[in-house]
Design a protein that fits this description.
The complex is a heterodimer of chains A (about 220) and B (about 300). Chain A has two domains: about 1-80 and about 155-215, Rossmann fold (3-Layer(aba) Sandwich); about 90-155, no CATH class. Helices cover about 30% and strands about 25% of the residues of chain A. Chain A is built from six helices and ten strands; from the N terminus they run βββαββαβαααβαβββ. Chain A starts with a strand and ends with a strand. Chain B is of the alpha+beta class and about 300 residues long. Chain B has two domains: about 1-55 and about 165-300, no CATH class; about 65-155, Alpha-Beta Plaits (2-Layer Sandwich), CATH 3.30.70. Chain B has a four-stranded antiparallel β-sheet with strand order 2-3-1-4. The two termini of chain B are about 30 Å apart. The chains are: A alpha/beta (about 220), B alpha+beta (about 300). The interface between A and B is medium-sized, with 27 and 21 residues. The complex binds adenosine-5'-diphosphate and magnesium ion. Adenosine-5'-diphosphate (ADP) binds near residues 11, 15, 37 and 42 of chain A.
């Protein structure tokens, strides 16, 4: 599903954030990416969605080499992925419903389908009653769940989450993790980056560890 | 596929209307500015169209004078009458015998003395001919044809006013074209700036949309709709301004024309010209938005 071969990323200022990464994630797998702040987790996730481009190496997503992707093809790659951003990237001038609607509008779905899909996604994350609220009126945990709803509403085959439990209490974090597990159980490939080691203590899933831009064994 | 397409475009259309209505003062001001700018060249064009159609009417229809040779006989005169009747360019004509012409001359002040002492009538028989067309070219051509008739000594027409009218219309057309060009550029510039500001305030939305898979055309679309719709409404405003102007002028004209006794009122743009105006103004708005989007959107790249 996702494979990196000799991938390096050097930022324009010369800093090497990722150094010779090799990894492979199978379809339907759920994988954690861990490491200290600054280890390069976000950079790695951004490479998958072509938000950043690799300096060298090949990245293959569902058989497609995205290092050579033309600019015009990037939107279609991103539609295959549900991305939960570390800084949320919510639209604060639209209510909860409209935020979740955005990926469907972008993906040119039909009108009658959109409403039911948005409600289904909001239902899954427990925000159905808040569909008219503005993001500013939501708690931290609710905002995180809104991000999840927006990431899954168009039913992507890959779900990527960057620090999805960032500043949440343990109970909330566990809830969120349970949601990812349930998406994974219906066949979605899930990749979660977190610096929170406590989250991984009793996981049966594979854990990849990044240290200063290199994958540790 | 088609339904999804309609959904998307319908959505953007209503979103654009909502945006226009959500900032009523700004939208109204832009529309008024566009309306005034467009109404200037269009208004002059309308006046010219009216001038042209009035000048085409018979009150001002050009006339030609055909002078016969001094030895012209009754048969020659009849021959010419017949030819004039057959010529499709001739609307109507009038025969002026040389005695009548001399009599008219004697009536004129100041000339009585001279004419009474004439031994012999020096004036030729003449025809006064009203023609169908009034372009200098058509009149020239007709003159050439008549000059070849053997009974005719000389064909004269008052080309001065025809040429003056023609020159005036040419100048008018030039002014319209120049104004239209300059003001179109101004409208494009206004739209360019409006969209630039919109893009700046929608930076987040654009960035996020790109992050979750929006194509460039999806992101461009609302701005292009905005430009086209505002342009269209500007065109409607221009149309209304001209309609109001013509209405007002016609009221004045009725007073003026009462003194004379003929019917004169200005006409508004024809249906085709109205549609052209609206399409053109929508296109101007679209173009301004398109240029603005092309030069500003690429600067917003997510990271
Ligand atoms: N756009 C950028 N330009 C320059 N350096 C960057 C940029 N983004 C991240 N970095 C650097 O790359 C390193 C890895 O960053 P990141 O991938 O965000 O780490 P993590 O998500 O693991 O905290 C950090 O040292 C960070 O400062
Ligand atoms: Mg990070």
């Amino acid at each position: 599903m996702i494979s990196f071969k000799n991938v390096s990323k050097r930022y324009p200022d010369g800093y090497v954030a990722l150094n010779n990464i090799d990894l492979s994630v199978e379809p339907g797998e759920m994988v954690f990416l861990t490491g200290h702040s600054g280890a390069g987790k976000s950079t790695l996730l951004k490479l998958i969605a072509a938000i950043e481009r690799p300096t060298s190496g090949t990245i293959t997503i569902s058989g497609q080499n995205i290092a050579q992707l033309k600019l015009g093809a990037i939107p279609y790659l991103r539609r295959k992925i549900g991305f939960i951003f570390q800084d949320h990237k919510l639209l604060f001038d639209r209510n909860v419903f409209d935020n979740v609607l955005l990926p469907l509008q972008i993906g040119s779905f039909e009108n009658h389908m959109m409403v039911s899909r948005v409600r289904a996604a909001l239902d899954k994350v427990g925000l159905l009653k808040k569909e008219k609220s503005m993001p500013i009126a939501l708690s931290g945990g609710e905002r995180q769940r809104l991000c999840i709803a927006r990431a899954v509403v168009h039913r992507p085959s890959i779900l990527i989450a960057d620090e999805p439990t960032g500043n949440l209490d343990v109970d909330y974090a566990r809830d969120i993790m349970a949601m990812f597990t349930s998406f994974n159980q219906v066949g979605v490939t899930v990749l979660i980056a977190t610096h929170d080691a406590s989250l991984l203590e009793d996981t049966q899933h594979r854990v990849l560890s990044l240290k200063q831009g290199k994958l540790a064994a | 596929m088609i339904r999804a397409w309609l959904t998307q475009h319908g959505f953007v259309f209503f979103l654009t209307l909502k945006r226009l209505i959500s900032t009523p003062v700004t939208s109204l001001l832009s529309v008024v500015v566009m309306g005034i700018a467009l109404s200037l060249p269009t208004g002059i064009y309308v006046l010219m169209e009216n001038l042209q159609s009035i000048s085409g009417q018979s009150i001002n229809s050009p006339q030609m004078s055909l002078f016969l040779k001094s030895d012209a006989k009754k048969e020659d005169i009849d021959k010419i009458k017949q030819r004039l009747e057959e010529n499709s360019q001739v609307v109507d004509f009038q025969f002026v015998p040389k005695d009548v012409a001399l009599h008219q001359l004697q009536q004129s002040n100041g000339l009585t003395d001279i004419t009474t002492h004439l031994v012999r009538n020096p004036l030729p028989d003449a025809f006064i001919v009203h023609t169908l067309e009034n372009t200098p070219e058509a009149l020239d051509q007709l003159q050439t044809v008549m000059q070849k008739w053997s009974e005719i000594e000389y064909v004269q027409f008052d080309s001065a006013w025809v040429e003056r009218m023609s020159a005036l219309l040419k100048l008018g057309r030039f002014v319209v074209l120049m104004l239209a060009t300059l003001l179109s550029i101004a409208i494009i510039a206004i739209m360019f700036n409006t969209i630039r500001l919109q893009i700046l305030t929608k930076r987040d939305e654009i960035e996020i949309s790109k992050l979750i898979g929006a194509t460039d055309s999806f992101i461009r679309r609302p701005f292009l709709y905005f430009g086209a719709i505002q342009g269209l409404v500007g065109g409607v405003a221009a149309w209304a301004i001209i309609a109001f102007g013509i209405e007002t002028m016609n009221k004045e004209l009725i007073e003026l024309v009462k003194l004379y006794s003929f019917d004169l009122s200005l006409k508004h743009l024809s249906l085709e010209d109205s549609i052209s105006l609206l399409l053109f103004s929508a296109w101007l708005g679209w173009l301004g938005a398109r240029l603005s989007v092309a030069s500003h959107l690429w600067q917003i790249e997510p990271n």
